[in-house]
Write a structure and sequence with these properties.
Blueprint (H helix, E strand, L loop, with lengths): L23 H8 L4 H9 L7 H6 L1 E7 L2 E6 L14 H17 L7 E11 L10 E9 L4 E9 L5 E12 L7
């Protein structure tokens, strides 16, 4: 039974979060002639706007290398579940993004990848007290039809919190030179 002394819908407990983002269509068009690593660097450097999902959860790209991406997140209350921990979907979104973007760094213009499967092992909980959370995605094997990646989420102290592997399907054809 919920204690009657607390009004769980009190205005004092109300939180509001406004999220702004750029429409993804024009950004995708601007990125179309770029190689994957050029597009990832453009997002990191603020030349291209980040995807709406990144804005929604507060994800930012910090490292872009061939075959490797690192993203960062300052954890916030809006990502918590009812037991005061970050929802597991937060780590899943971080890892899916980092691992998929790691593949993109190796692709020519006109080619991309989509997630086929994503397997996560949660090793320690994350919360708003975890400090800056990082997610790293690395390519294990880049293939013509299927690629494999590995990912790691670490808390602000560098402790491994989530480990993941994923399989991606390769989509599209490299752009033809004119």
């Amino acid at each position: 039974m919920i204690a009657e002394t607390t009004d769980l819908f009190s205005p004092d407990l109300l939180r509001v979060r406004v999220v702004e983002w750029q429409a993804p269509g024009p950004a995708a068009q601007a990125a179309a002639p770029m190689s994957g690593i050029e597009a990832m660097r453009a997002i990191r450097d603020g030349v291209l706007p980040p995807p709406p999902m990144a804005r929604l959860i507060g994800l930012r790209m910090s490292v872009v290398e061939e075959g490797r991406i690192v993203t960062e997140l300052e954890p916030h209350e809006s990502l918590e579940n009812t037991i005061g921990l970050l929802h597991g979907a937060t780590a899943a979104a971080l890892l899916d993004t980092a691992m998929g973007c790691a593949i993109s760094t190796m692709l020519p213009a006109g080619q991309t990848s989509v997630t086929l499967d994503l397997k996560l092992a949660y090793l320690r909980p994350l919360s708003v007290r975890s400090g800056t959370i990082t997610a790293e995605g690395k390519i294990i094997k880049l293939g013509r039809q299927t690629s494999y990646t590995e990912g790691f989420v670490r808390d602000g102290k560098g402790n491994l919190a989530v480990h993941a592997t994923a399989t991606f399907s390769m989509v599209g054809e490299p752009a033809k030179a004119k």
